[in-house]
Design goal:
With about 375 residues, the protein is of the alpha/beta class. The chain has 15 helices and eleven strands. The structure holds NADPH dihydro-nicotinamide-adenine-dinucleotide phosphate and the ligand N[C@@H](CC=O)C(=O)O.
Length: about 375
Amino acid sequence: MPAARQIFVAVIGAGGVGKAFLSQLSQLTKRLSSEPSTPINLALIYVARSSKVFFNEDYSPISISSWESDLASSTRTVPSPTQIADYLSKAPASVILVDNTSNEDVANAYPLFLGKKISVVTPNKKGFSSNLKLWQDIFKAASNGTGSGGYVFHESTVGAGLPVLSTLKDLIETGDEIVKIEGVFSGTMSFLFNSFMPVGGGGGSFSAEVTKAKELGYTEPDPRDDLNGLDVARKLTILARISGLEIESPASFPVQSLIPNELESCKSGDEFMKRLPEFDGEMDKLKQEAAKEGKVVRFVGSIDVAEKDVKVGLEKFDASHPIAALKGSDNIISFYTKRYGSNPLIIQGAGAGGDATAMGVTADLIKVLRLLL
Ligand SMILES: NC(=O)C1=CN([C@@H]2O[C@H](COP(=O)(O)OP(=O)(O)OC[C@H]3O[C@@H](n4cnc5c(N)ncnc54)[C@H](OP(=O)(O)O)[C@@H]3O)[C@@H](O)[C@H]2O)C=CC1
Ligand SMILES: N[C@@H](CC=O)C(=O)O
């Protein structure tokens, strides 16, 4: 049996997606260690939540079966992204950093990590949908961009585990021309409208469905980031940039917010959730108005590449429309291209949830492993 190749994994963020990722990493580690042709010794060397961190100065591995208790009992001070980059860059093997947070400071440090040959895999949209300069700096530094640093993959930033970004890149790299991308891009919004306003009538109260979406792990850490349309706007920014549009930020195009004006000033997500039921009547009115026309309302987005037109918001659909018929947290994303003509290439399936999202993150980690070997 050939000698095993050592690769280190560092994980920042151990919430819904992070925990599911660590469980998939455990399976993957076992499988790769017994690969007959190229065994890989995949070792977890760093794990962190917002206020806790666990790692060993000498880079000895963390047991993947006891990371949770090791982290809980750790008394280490949480390092800054610069200190994390410094520690990881001195490791005696290649490192893949998995960012399972939605943290802006961690995302801002991607060019730094990549420049130090640390690869980055993440479902965190912030690095790819904030200002255009950060996007450019990330791909200037990365080896799968124009640089010579680590590799970067972020499939789960759009459509959770669905192959949305890889499909878009394949279309472009094989010479197709993207005309328009449209659909439902949020697992939370899909779940909310499918259950609050199902085809055929009925459905629960809007605020109760928001609570359920949060409990199911579909929402952003603060559900206001879904309801204000920004999560969808971030995803469209990423898709538009890959399609060649230089979108400065998600604030560059119209985005409809579902946050009631009166709740704009809420100081916390908890306060917002507590007061949201006061506005169920307004959402019921929206449902009744659509029903009068035999329609349902859904939260959608579109990118018209030729017109450089991006928009996000509510639209009415006939009951027979595929968008009206979605179930659960499903996303549906239609690529209209020159090659596919008027019959778009369509991707559909769960667009949120810990396991589905972690699948995209783990698949990205495998892509990096293949490049590193
Ligand atoms: N949930 C989903 O369906 C999907 C999520 N995503 C993206 O995946 C990411 C994670 O989402 P999710 O797991 O649902 O969110 P959670 O809120 O469940 O988890 C976030 C984790 O990040 C940790 N964290 C936050 N800031 C820091 C920091 N500065 N340093 C270290 N750890 C930090 C939190 O720590 P603590 O435990 O202490 O709070 C928590 O463990 C987000 O970027 C989200 O947009 C993408 C696609 C789908
Ligand atoms: N909050 C997001 C999570 C995935 O990106 C969503 O609901 O789609």
